[in-house]
Amino acid sequence: MPGVRTEGPRPSDAPVPDLRRGVRKKAVVDSALCKGCGLCVDACPVGAITLEKAMAVVDASLCVGCGVCATTCPEGAIRLQG
């Protein structure tokens, strides 16, 4: 089926954020490592990541800290911080 990916991590493989502590981590992109492949854009369940000038950009106001993008990135350019 077009647009459906079967490879790569599943959302259930992502770390679950600990919301009880009141501190939510957000995805942060290391611009030195990002190659602009767009896999994180496709993987983000809330649409918090876009590509701008061949670089992943995270909208922190939309990011829920699920970590799917970090586990999807083949370059290791995304980490959760906060």
Outline of the structure:
The chain has 82 residues and is of the alpha+beta class. 12% of the residues lie in helices and 17% in strands.
Describe the structure.
The N and C termini lie far apart (37 Å). It contains two helices and four strands; from the N terminus they run βαββαβ. It has a domain at 27-81: Alpha-Beta Plaits (2-Layer Sandwich), CATH 3.30.70. The strands form two sheets. A two-stranded antiparallel sheet has the order 1-4. A two-stranded antiparallel sheet has the order 2-3. The model has no long low-confidence stretch (mean pLDDT 86). The longest helix is centred in the middle third of the chain and has 5 residues, at 39-43. It has helices spanning 39-43, 68-72, and strands at 26-29, 49-51, 56-58, 78-81.
